[in-house]
Amino acid sequence: MGKNELSVREPWQDYSGEHASHAERNFYRVFNNYFQGTDFRIREKPKELRNIYVDYPLPPEIESDIYHPDEPIVHHGISPDYAIESVVSSKILYVEVKRQDGWIEGKSRSAGRGNAHERACKLFTPGLINTYRQYGNIQPPALPFWIVFQGDITRDPCRVREIHFWFRGPSPHFFLWNDKMTDQNIIEHFDKYLRSLLL
Predict the structure, then answer these.
(1) Which terminus in the chain has less CB density within 10 A, N or C?
(2) pLDDT recorded at residue 14
């Protein structure tokens, strides 16, 4: 990518990052308040998965072909946005909050060009599902994670259809938290569909 392209991209990344951070903090605020005095808690950036790739064994023929840096790799993993945990059962539901712009009133269709919903698909890979289950002890057929979308993507006619199409079946495990909703809407979704997974 050239200098001119980067000069245009960097302010967009700053804008996107700032709004994504606000979305994540809003989610934390709602559930941290809601869980006061209960058997549930919410943790920010849970650390137990941050090194899951470091010692993952590869077949010898693959291992021999990859680059081996002089300094050993000590940190390589994932960091979900949140973990909702029962202090009684120790079960954990991992949460990803994805904020993205979208195509809504007054914007062009290109406003929906982001890929936050595509990046969320990695959670459905066999390796991550099994690892989340191992740490969170949430068994099939339920999924061990919850994806919460915020921003204009929640009303974008193309992205909303894609999300509902891709995630049909496990629909309780995603939530489109649009600006017309209140804190109570997301709490009710949790209570109706996800609370029981942690008991």
Answers:
(1) N
(2) 43
Give me the phi and psi of 140, to 5 degrees please: -60, 155
Tell me the chain's radius of gyration from C-alpha atoms.
19
Q: How many CB atoms lie within 10 A of CB 39?
A: 12
pLDDT at 44 > cutoff 80? yes
Per-residue pLDDT tens for 51-106?
999 999 999 999 999 999 999 999 999 999 999 999 999 999 999 999 999 999 99
The CATH number, out of the four listed (3.30.420.10, 3.30.70.2740, 3.40.580.10, 3.10.20.740), of the domain defined by the range 3-198: 3.40.580.10
Tell me what percent of the residues of the chain surpass a pLDDT of 90: 79
Domain boundaries, the chain: 3-198
DSSP the chain: --HHHHHHHHHHHHHHHHHHHHHHHHHHHHHHHHTTTSSEEEEES-STTTTTTTT----HHHHTTS---SSPP-------SEEEEETTT--EEEEEEEE-----TTS-GGGG---HHHHGGGGGSHHHHHHHHHHH-PPTTS-SEEEEEESGGGG-HHHHHHHHHHT-S-GGGEEEE-TT--HHHHHHHIIIIIGGGG-
Going by pLDDT thresholds of 50, 70 and 90, the confidence category of residue 45 is: very high
Determine the Cα–Cα distance for residues 126 and 12; give it in Å rounded to an integer.
Answer: 33
